[in-house]
Amino acid sequence: MISRFSGLSAFPLTPLQDDEVDERAFAGLVERLGAAEVDSITALGSTGSYAYLSPDERARVARLAVKHAGGTPVFVCVADLRTSQVLAHVRSAEAAGAAGILLTPMTYQPLTADDVFELFRTVTEHTDLPVIVYDNPGTTHFAFTTGLYARIAELPRIASIKIPGVPNDSVRARARVAGIRAVVPEHVTIGVSGDASAATGLNAGCDAWYSVIGGTLPEPALTITRAAQRGRTAEAVAESERLAPLWDLFAEFGGSLRVTAAIAEHLGLAPAQCLPLPIQGLTEAQRARVAAAVRDLDLG
Amino acid sequence: MISRFSGLSAFPLTPLQDDEVDERAFAGLVERLGAAEVDSITALGSTGSYAYLSPDERARVARLAVKHAGGTPVFVCVADLRTSQVLAHVRSAEAAGAAGILLTPMTYQPLTADDVFELFRTVTEHTDLPVIVYDNPGTTHFAFTTGLYARIAELPRIASIKIPGVPNDSVRARARVAGIRAVVPEHVTIGVSGDASAATGLNAGCDAWYSVIGGTLPEPALTITRAAQRGRTAEAVAESERLAPLWDLFAEFGGSLRVTAAIAEHLGLAPAQCLPLPIQGLTEAQRARVAAAVRDLDLG
Taking 70 as the threshold, does the pLDDT of residue A1 lie above it? Predict the structure, then answer.
């Protein structure tokens, strides 16, 4: 049986307009993902700006995601700085009809491994939903070890681990994924993130791709995912290499979020300046380069 | 005229019990600071767990701080991830009767210098309160440059800059403070943080000490501050060196917050496990060492 926590999980933006969630734009992004037949939709990921939204906004966005997903499973990120706040988001995700939850150890004061383990233990004791362990050191500044993955993966209801980008080198990438695979139970899938390394990660044995770009441009992300799933490793790599100008812009412009938001705005999928302030998004000159890449790569 | 933003600003904890603010304990900590005659009290700093509290909790704590401060000026941290949330905290601080606000660029997605400047610009346009620029890279992961200090310090209502710890070497510390002093207007005070380097910072020309330990143990912090203010640099250094076992525990146990909370709990100033989960605080073995240091240093 193929786990629900495999294949392409697409992370839509949660576009804002005048500091309020643009529900129509969000619904449109989600419907587009359902129509493209992604394997799952992760609402309110880092790409979905969960960290910037109020509990009420997050509850509402979770409901909208399930409503507009057309039956595609929806995962919802429940992370927050305080355990009791996380549990409140868990209840909202359950009420929305989420098929699973993502949990990352959001930090302000640095957390210890024991703090993080206890957070996961508490959450898994308070829900029947499957849990995706969300390792995102670029935003949380928490460094998971493989040993901590193993410890958390033994908890009930842990369904998947979303790992950061894998090494570019395919041998090293395979060793990295095998090293995790060796210490977590078989039913726990491993999903790569860091879009630029997705093809390498999938070819190296990752079961899933938790994808930023897939939330806005599902077609090329599906091309990579389906090729890798069918063992056509060269095809997956070729599509990823075709998209290299996009990965280069991610690197040059400080990450995937601002570039992806600019793409969504350029394509009319999100209103202008759709990220939460103080994040201003790309400059006009940067946006022009993004638009040129979208055109050159025929992504429009 | 001596600025209100000089001398010892003491940062009380906001103790929790069973995931709710322990208002009696908080009021007790604030009264203790007023009685000790610290120069100001900063409520809801990082030490005061602002990042973990709801808007309502923060508004309530700000009001309690002013009520129990006995006339000592109270500054309130208004930071949050989203600009509109920051502005809501500003309104709460104003309503509470705060004498100033602290603003740090709390981050989830990394911010650019322009994002941070615009955040400060927006806030200074929306309040008449003096603003303390709060540079805390250990929690925000945002790196201010001296140039960005200068740019922000030109905004109206900027009253002070809270800088991270200065170099241990007094010559380098003096150069660091002079380098900032040279580029910010005269009315903007410079306050050191990082308790272990406070004596060095004050002796190097800092106007203020924004102090974690001073929020729980005001007496030794005042000893250092008053000595430095009177030009008795050796006395300030001697008291700081006497407290070296405490600074060593800060370093060994991952920062000042967990140790200071353990001290407050040990002295009966806060309930057990007073930090917000998932922060578990120190282990029993670590607490025993903190208690021994408190006894050996006669801090009880």
Answer: no
From CA A63, how far away is CA A17, in angstroms rounded?
19
Q: How far is CA A60 from CA A53, A103, A123, B272, in A?
A: 10, 18, 21, 36
CATH 3.20.20.70 fits B7-232, yes or no: yes
Tell me if A72 sits within 8 A of A36, measured CB to CB.
Answer: no
- Nearest CB neighbour to A255, from listed B53, B85, B110: B110
3-state secondary structure of B83: helix
- Whether B255 and chain A come into contact, CB under 8 Å, resolves to yes
Give the domain ranges of chain A. 7-232
Q: How far is CA A297 from the centre of its chain?
A: 23
Residue B51's pLDDT band, with cuts at 50, 70 and 90, is: very high
What is the per-residue pLDDT across B218-241, written as a single tens digit (0 to 9) for each? Answer: 999 999 999 999 999 999 999 999
Neighbour count for residue A156 (Cβ, 10 Å): 10
Give the Å distances, CA to CA, from B292 to B218, B263, B299. 19, 10, 10
The separation between CA B62 and the C-alpha centre of its own chain, rounded to angstroms, equals 15
Is the pLDDT at B1 greater than 70? The verdict is no
Dihedral through CA B251, CA B254, CA B255, CA B258, nearest 10? -120
Interface of B with A in 45-74 (CB under 8 A): 46, 51-54
Q: Rounded to whole angstroms, how far apart are CA atoms A97 and A59?
A: 11
Question: What backbone torsions phi and psi does residue A190 show, to the nearest 5 degrees?
Answer: -115, 125
CA quadruple B187, B188, B193, B197: dihedral positive or negative?
negative
What sign for the dihedral angle of Cα B64, B70, B71, B72? negative
B112–A254 C-beta distance less than 8 A: yes
Distance from CA of B147 to the nearest CA of A (A): 19
Q: Using one digit for the tens of pLDDT, what is the confidence trace for B61-79?
A: 999 999 999 999 999 999 9
Neighbours of A143 (CB within 10 A): 11
Looking at this predicted complex, what is its ipTM? 0.97
- Among the partner residues A19, A108, A111, nearest to B84 by beta-carbon distance: A19
Cβ distance A278 to B83 less than 8 Å, yes or no, reads: yes
**Burial bucket for residue B98 (CB in 10 Å: 0-12, 13-18, 19+):** buried
3-state secondary structure of B235: helix
Q: Determine contact, residues B262/B286, Cβ cutoff 8 Å.
A: yes
Residue labelled with tokens 């006339």: B71
Instruction: Name the residue of chain B whose CA is nearest to A18's CA.
Output: B84
| Residue of chain B minimizing CA distance to A257 | B109
Q: Chain A within 8 Å of B143 (Cβ-Cβ)? A: no
- Closest-CA residue in chain A for B120? A278
Cα separation, A209 vs A285, in Å, equals 31
Mind telling me how many Å the CA of A176 is from chain B's nearest CA? 26
B188 touches chain A (CB under 8 A): no
Q: Are B3 and B264 in contact (CB under 8 A)?
A: no
